[in-house]
Amino acid sequence: MAGVSIENVTKRFGADQPAVTGFSLSIEPGAFLALLGPSGCGKTTLLRMLAGFETPDEGVIRLGDRVLAGPGQFVPPEARNMAMVFQSYALWPHMSVAGNVGYPLKVRGIAGAAYRDRVGRALDAVKMTDFASRNPAELSGGQRQRVALARCLVASPEVILLDEPLANLDRHLRASMEETFREFHQRTGATMIYVTHDQSEAMALADTVAVMSAGRLLQAGAPHEIYRRPDNRAVAALIGAGDVLSLPVGDVASRELDGAAIAAALGGREGPLADVLVRPEDVLPDAGGAEFAVEDCVFKGERYALVLRHGTGARLQAFSPERHAPGATVRCSILRGWRL
Question: Does 87 score more than 80 pLDDT?
Fold first, then answer.
């Protein structure tokens, strides 16, 4: 498998409408990358440039050592050896499941035993062998998505592009398909680039997450690194729950702050203010420490989600196994925070 290199890519729709601006990222062979960001941030435009459906106005896109798009160069979609899974599945309604999966092979002139073998192996990989003779209209949304994946697999692409493939599925089916995507990636070893606005999908599936906003790359890294160590407020707001407090934490060299430093800052220590991210799991109710008023308490099944307010006005979220009535007072110990 080949890696993908995106070098300073920009795409404009009209003189004053940059959809992607100066985007650069190297994607290792066999990686599972999630492009994460809100609607309109440019992630689908970037995916379409990778696929060859849009042409960059600036920059270079490479697959391995081959230039796919750049000044004076453009490789058409059918010659890129990439496959794309669309949000709408894009299955032919008049073809059977097997016919849909085998269509890329027919286009390449592959027939006979080789055709049947490759279609059979692709259907088996997504557990759809028993549905080979059915039409798409007879399938559930999750089954159609599996067929779309099998159609990608049958052509042995170097890169698989996925444009919000789970957006049309309910929560139960999304969970099932997430497992299918993980198994698919482990089995094929293909480089996968997955567009989503759902942070839980990105964190569950990808080994690398690239966070986008307003057409720009904000931060890229392993999911746990971006969650624990966001570069700025925008990334902190897009990844996970938590609150950003403006606190006088003093001249501390480390960006990771212990609970003592945060407690002292909440106590009113003077000094220049810094933005500090505190995650809910790092706030322990009924564990001593600073006093907070409970503003809200919502049952989440396995625990309660609390919204807390300090006397200084600072707001924090926390989790608790016990219900705390709104208006009650709790003392909370804060384990750590992250200075942005």
Answer: no
Is residue 317 within 8 A of residue 280, CB to CB? The reply is yes
Q: What's the one-letter identity of residue 149? A: L
**Cα separations (Å) of 139 from 19, 90, 91, 97, 291?**
36, 14, 11, 9, 55
> What mean pLDDT comes out for the span 158-163?
92
Question: What does residue 101 show for φ and ψ, rounded to 5 degrees?
Answer: -65, -40
How are strands ordered across the β-sheet holding 304-310?
315-320, 304-310, 283-299, 329-334
Q: What CA–CA distance (Å, rounded) separates 201 from 197?
A: 8
Q: Up-side HSE of residue 293: CA atoms within 13 Å toward CB?
A: 9
User: What percent of the chain shows pLDDT beyond 70?
Assistant: 99
Tell the burial category of 93 from Cβ atoms under 10 Å away from its Cβ (0-12, 13-18, 19+).
exposed
The C-alpha atoms of residue 205 and residue 154 are separated, in whole angstroms, by: 22
Tens digit of each residue's pLDDT (9 = 90 or more) over 246-256? 988 877 778 99
Which of 100-109's residues contact partners 24+ apart within 8 Å by CB, and which partners?
100/136, 100/147, 100/151, 101/147, 101/150, 101/151, 101/154, 102/154, 103/151, 104/151, 104/154, 104/155, 105/154, 105/155, 108/155
Q: Which pair of structure tokens corresponds to residue 145? A: 């998505």
CB 122, CB 97: distance < 8 Å:
no
Alpha helices in the chain (DSSP H): 43-51, 97-107, 112-125, 141-154, 171-188, 199-205, 223-228, 233-238, 259-266
The set of residues, in sequence order, having a beta carbon less than 8 Å from that of 292 and lying 6+ positions away, is 308, 309, 310, 316, 329, 330, 331, 332
Neighbour-count burial of 55, counting CB atoms closer than 10 A to its CB (0-12 exposed, 13-18 middle, 19+ buried): exposed
Region 215-235: mean pLDDT is 95
Residue with tokens 């089916």: 173
Higher pLDDT, 322 or 174: 322
Strands in 58-63's sheet, in edge-to-edge order, are 18-27, 4-12, 58-63, 66-70, 73-74
In contact, 213 and 220? CB cutoff 8 Å: no
A 10 A CB-CB count for 53 gives 14
